[in-house]
Amino acid sequence: MEANTKTSKTISLENYGITGATVHYNLSPSALHRITIEKGQGVEASSGALAVNTGEFTGRSPKDRFIVKDDITKDEIWWGDINIPFESDKFDALYDKVVDYLSGKEIFARDCYACADANYKTNIRVINEYPWSNMFVYNMFLRPSEAELENFEPEWTVVNAPGFMADAEVDGTRQHNFAILNFTKKIALVGGTGYTGEIKKGIFSALNFILPVEKNTLPMHCSANLGKDGDTAIFFGLSGTGKTTLSADPKRKLIGDDEHGWTNENTVFNFEGGCYAKAINLTEESEPEIFHAIKKGAILENVIMDENGVVDFTDTSITQNTRVSYPIYHIDNIQVPSIGRNPKNIFFLTADAFGVLPPISKLTPAQAAYHFISGYTAKVAGTEAGVEEPQPSFSACFGAPFMPLHPARYAEMLSKKMQEAGVNVWLVNTGWTGGPYGVGTRIKLKYTRAMIQAVLNGEFGLYNYDDYHIHSVFGVAQPRKCPGVPDTVLSPRATWNDDEAYYKMAFKLTNAFRENFKKFESDASEEVRRGGPQRYAF
Ligand code: ATP
Ligand code: MN
């Protein structure tokens, strides 16, 4: 159901420096859908969803993400090539140029909020150049009631001008596109890119600073859902590892698919009000919840359709990162409001393209800390056939690009909360089996779902040593049996049919882990350091 589809309220953007603009305030998604098509910026797919092209950028651009170095941030941020400093004066000058660019235009503004838990509610005003970007904001952020809109006081502002191109030399950016966070002014300034994900990840990054520093709450790049008995499960993982896919489970209520906070009041809450799913190779059969969420109100990004508006989800000619955003109520089984209790199980999802990590294994608390700090997944080299080497990719806290603080700060909070809550932590390889990328295959989604279900149903013996095999290289506890999954699938070595090749590849990954962990070693306890892969296999 569409919320707050009408409001008589109007706002002026003059105090933002945007003059002479025609401001459309909190338009309904159906109005934005219509206006987008009228302007020739999108078309309607046969499902009723709006289909747009985001332009030059079809994904985030981490190298163009900056944080203004000021009194609030200078001593707190983990500066480096993830959190790149930006001068305050340069920000002011660039901001002036952007609002000048937006002046006199038709502008789409929306008041919304982040954080489903009332104690953490963060009001946001988003100012968009394009109608479909504003519809994305409707889909992805939380939607205030009409009464809440009347007295709305924005705390953070997102200024989003995809058509504005920066002049790198003058403006201090790397190139023409940029996403800059200013904590003093509470502004996220996004320009030169139409990729909608920059808007949501901008606010996520801001909250990843504010919540731990000011509110003692752990922000997490994870999805979450809730079982019948009220048991919460959360799924950490980097892009493409399965957070959105695996959290959409008809037997469990969805809390959220990407960003959550874990409070000291023992709750887990969603930051957002919608989902942003990958659409590549989507089928009704394997992902029915997501497939059926694609209807009027949803926005498809960068997909290819035939003349009847039927999407070919296998067509990646624009990008591999085709997406669809929809408000969370497009999913049938959801928790309202999007809040759960302390998690009972935590899953670390990794798409291991080396094909050597077990498809599921149980971690000790030290191993959990080690893997959280490491944040391993793999990037596959390309889409061409043939044997290309997969690249290990490590991203601390399974979300380094959005984490402004040193990873150890999030890791400490997580370890403490896990201990207090007595959670079980599982490492799930949603990547390759039977060999590395190019030789093996991606593990079947139905097997991954069966393994997760077994955990959630308590079907793996939790303390019985005999139920597990301790992996000789990674040291993790690999269940021997799982309902709905052939025994051999549970042992990566068994799926390879070549022990020597398997161990060789496993050691390769071990070395990559060790190399990556060096930069965290001085901050990690002896116990956590021992949580990593074991040096000797035999
Ligand atoms: P992002 O942070 O970018 O939103 P995500 O973690 O939410 O990423 P998903 O959108 O869930 O990632 O993408 C997982 C993709 O991998 C989907 O396209 C899914 O169909 C595919 N997939 C294939 N096999 C599996 C598997 N065994 N488990 C999970 N996902 C799988
Ligand atoms: Mn996702």
UniProtKB/TrEMBL annotation:
Gene3D superfamilies: 3.90.228.20, Phosphoenolpyruvate Carboxykinase, domain 1, Phosphoenolpyruvate Carboxykinase, domain 2. CDD domains: PEPCK_ATP. The keyword Lyase applies. It comes from Sungkyunkwania multivorans. It is found in: Cytoplasm. Keywords: ATP-binding, Cytoplasm, Decarboxylase, Gluconeogenesis, Lyase, Manganese, Metal-binding, Nucleotide-binding. The gene is pckA. Pfam families: PEPCK_ATP (PF01293). It comes from the Bacteria. Mn(2+) binds at residues 201, 221, 258. Its main location: cytoplasm. Belongs to the phosphoenolpyruvate carboxykinase (ATP) family. Pathway: Carbohydrate biosynthesis; gluconeogenesis. This is Phosphoenolpyruvate carboxykinase (ATP).
